[in-house]
Each structure stands twice: as C-alpha cells, then as structure tokens.
Write a structure and sequence with these properties.
Length: 470
C-alpha cells in the first residue's frame, strides 16, 4: 500500500490512492480521503540492514509507504468463504502514531497500539506495528478498518496534541489512522500436516514445538530453529503452510538472537541499533505468531520478558500491564510453572541448603550467612555465565558498573575469588572502553551517570588492590 510508484513485493497487489473498491475489481478502499506517504526509515545504513522489521533488503522497504487520515481508513477484499490469517501493518517512520485500533469484519482485532520509536526507548517500541489474527470468512469478504482513540493523558503515558510549555508531557503531535500494508493468507491446515507422517513439515512442527517449550534452553531453541529453516528452505513447493512456517521461524529466531545480544557494545556496533530498538523489534517480531502455532507459547514468554524488563528499566506502568497480559496467556499453557508465577507477581523462594557451622550461632548470624551465600550464587552466575571477556554484563557500561554496589559485601567480607575477578574485569573494562578519560567520564552527562563509571568502580578497587596504578 502506498502512492503510485512506491515499492511492491513480487506476488503482491499494488494498492494506491485511486484503488477504490468495486465488485468488479474485488478489492479497494471503502474510505475515500486517505493521503499517501513515502518516508525514509531514519536508521543508519547498518541499522537498516539489521533491523528485524525489514522483510526485504534495503531499497525495497515495504514499510516506507502507506496511507493515513484523520478519519477511519477502511479497506475491503472479496474472498471465498473459509479460514484466513490476516496481518495488518500499522504506523509510519516519520510520525508518531498511537492508540491505533484495528477492526476486522466489525470485530475488534486489536487496540491501544502505539507505533513510535523515538520517544524514550524503554517506553516506546517500534515505528511499525503488526496485528496478526485468524479470520473466519462467512460472507465472502474481509473488511479492515483502522482508526484511533482520542488521546487521554493518564498516569503512565502522558502525551498531548499541543506543544507543552513545561516539557512535562510527551509531544506526539497530531495523531492519524495509519496503515502501511495488508496481507491475507489462507490459514494453513496444521492438524492435517501433523497427521501425515510423510510430510516434510511433520518433523519441523515437532522440532518447533520443542523449541517453543518454556523449559528449553535458548541455545537449544536457536539450534532447533536454524535446523527447521534449513529444511524449509529446501522444500521446493512453497505452499502457504511452508511460507507461514518459514516466516514464523525466521522471526522467532531473530527475536531470540536479538534478546541474547542484550546491551553489549559489540551488538550495538554489529547491528547499528541500540538495545531498545533490538528489544522492541524482537517484541514486534513475536506478534507474527498466531495462537494456534507451536511457537506461540515462546512468543508469549519473549514478549512477557521484554515488556517486564523495560518496565523495570523505565518505570513504565503500561510495560508491566503488557507483561501481565502475556503472563496470563502463558498461564494457560503452564499454570504452575515457577517462571510464569514469578512474572505474574508471585514470590518464588529459591531453594537453599543451610550450612550448619555451629549449633550455638545466633539466628541473626545464621540468616546473615544465608544472605551472603545467596548473594554468592547470584554473583557467580553473572561472572561465570553472563560476563563477557571485556568485562561487560550486557546492560551497557553505564548500568553494568552499578552492580558493583551489591557485589561489595561479598568481595570485602569473604575475598571471594570469582566475585573479585568479576569486579576487576568490570573496572578494567570500563576504563578500556573509552568511556573514561583522565580519570573522569569522557562525555558530559547528568551528575549521576557522569560519575558512575568511576565512583562505582574505583572505591572497591582501592580496597582490594590498593596502590595498583592499573
């Protein structure tokens, strides 16, 4: 969808501003005043190559163009009766679109859709959002309506249509209904494929079901999805089922890989995208998984984590609400799983084997030892399983150094070798990163973040390695 002359993928039907619906044509706009647009993504070249929302190489970006209007946008496509998967792509690169709502055949498909990527990262998301839903057609057509709700400032997402004088509210500008693409596919008959033991999709579906289980390690998931994609690419007859399976596996694999890049500096350099673009890009990729897909539970798990992590980072209440919504969905699959219960707000006690040093030790001393041993376990996990060779933990140097505040008791009280080694790698790493110059933060920032690279690392190093000039 876009103005005349905008890019069209092979096999797609171009829809421009003149494509009005008629029974003879069989598809087109039922609304008449929408305006076409053609934007640039705004990402650097490297970012365009790696951004997970691109389904075509740069230069053939299907999300750069579309239509918008202050009133609802309505599109109709005549189809045979049957079951379909409808995907609606919303938003715009150069404008902030929010509180969008999608109705399909007079049934609400999605609401409260915020498509922006330039507002504070942990709150925001991506410029383009997708809504993917199964649709049962009984009247011979699919009618998609996109509109938006009027902005209503509240306690967690404050914005205004007017430029604020005091800067307290986000200025999102004038809102509009905005659509950049629509895809309609026949719904794959997965049960039929599962019953056919000779089908190439049989082993792929089983493999994906294992990858989608909550207890499967991420490394195993990635290996299974890569194997599934190799088999899918080798299938010559690209049926709807094969196309759907390939898209879902590609997107979930990319989402997993982007999550596991965390906030490491090498990931920023490799992709040209910061941690927020990668996380919310991964979140959006998971929206492409339908509820009856074997990877749907995994898509809920990933979205739950992303939303919760961003809620913790920025204090955004709507991120917690998103996380809770996905946790509720995941509970339908794993009602008693500790991870789901934990993300749902329950306190899950970590098992601890008490070490009896003395039968006469006072209770406070016993509890203090337990706290110290629990802290040791956490620190060892971060040093042995998460810390990179250059000392990073994956939260960005500005946040990684903060963790040393909680490591100090173990380092000073017990001289734990692993904790001390990990702390030294953080301190050495931030000095070697280019963040510090002549003993001070190289860049000018607020009083907290400008001080932390030195103030969070050097006091502890002075205590454990006094006099070491390095």
């Amino acid at each position: 969808m876009g103005p005349t002359g905008s890019p069209v993928v092979i096999g797609a039907i171009p829809v421009d501003q003149e494509t009005a619906y008629s029974p003879a044509l069989g598809y087109g706009w039922l609304s008449s005043s929408q305006t076409g647009f053609l934007d640039k993504s705004g990402f650097p070249k490297k970012g365009e190559i790696h951004h997970p929302l691109h389904i075509l190489p740069p230069g053939k970006d299907l999300f750069c163009d579309g239509f918008e209007d202050a009133r609802p946008i309505v599109f109709r496509a005549d189809t045979p009766n049957g079951d379909y998967i409808v995907t609606v792509f919303l938003g715009r690169y150069q404008q902030r679109r929010h509180d969008l709502r999608v109705t399909i055949n007079n049934s609400l498909a999605a609401e409260n859709i915020d498509a922006w990527g330039d507002v504070w990262g942990s709150q925001g998301g991506t410029f383009i959002k997708s809504v993917k839903v199964p649709v049962a057609v009984k009247q011979g057509f699919i009618q998609v309506e996109v509109d938006y709700e009027p902005p209503q400032p509240d306690s967690w997402k404050e914005y205004t249509d007017n430029e604020p004088e005091d800067g307290r509210l986000w200025y999102l500008g004038e809102n509009k209904s905005s659509i950049v693409g629509l895809r309609i596919r026949s719904k794959p008959d997965w049960p039929a494929e599962k019953r056919d033991a000779t089908s190439p999709l049989q082993t792929i579906l089983v493999s994906d079901a294992i990858a989608g289980h909550i207890d499967t390690p991420d490394e195993t998931r990635i290996a299974l999805l890569k194997s599934s994609l190799e088999k899918l690419y080798a299938i010559e007859e690209k049926s709807t089922a094969v196309l759907e399976r390939t898209e879902v596996d590609e997107r979930i694999l990319t989402a997993l890989q982007y999550l596991r890049m965390w906030g490491f500096s090498w990931a920023n350099e490799k992709t040209g995208l910061n941690i927020y673009h990668r996380y919310w890009g991964a979140y959006e990729l998971c929206n492409a998984v339908a509820p009856d897909d074997p990877l749907y539970p995994l898509s809920l798990l990933l979205r739950m984590r992303i939303a919760y992590w961003n809620g913790r980072e920025g204090g955004w209440k709507h991120c917690y609400a998103l996380a809770n919504r996905h946790a509720i969905g995941l509970k339908a699959f794993y009602p008693e799983h500790p991870l789901v219960r934990m993300y749902s707000g329950e306190s899950i006690r970590e098992p601890y084997e008490k070490q009896v040093v003395s039968d006469h030790a006072p209770r406070w001393a016993t509890l203090q030892r337990e706290a110290l041993e629990r802290l040791r376990k956490v620190i060892h996990y971060w040093v042995e399983r998460r810390q990179s060779e250059n000392g990073e933990l994956g939260g960005g140097w500005g946040d990684d150094v903060e963790i040393l505040r909680s490591w100090t008791p173990l380092v000073l009280a017990t001289n734990d070798k692993i904790a001390r080694w990990g702390a030294k790698r953080i301190a050495d790493g931030v000095y070697a990163s280019g963040e510090i110059e002549n003993g001070y933060s190289k860049s000018i920032g607020d009083v907290e973040h400008a001080a932390e690279p030195v103030s969070d690392t050097q006091p502890l190093m002075m205590a454990v390695q006094y006099g070491d000039p390095l």
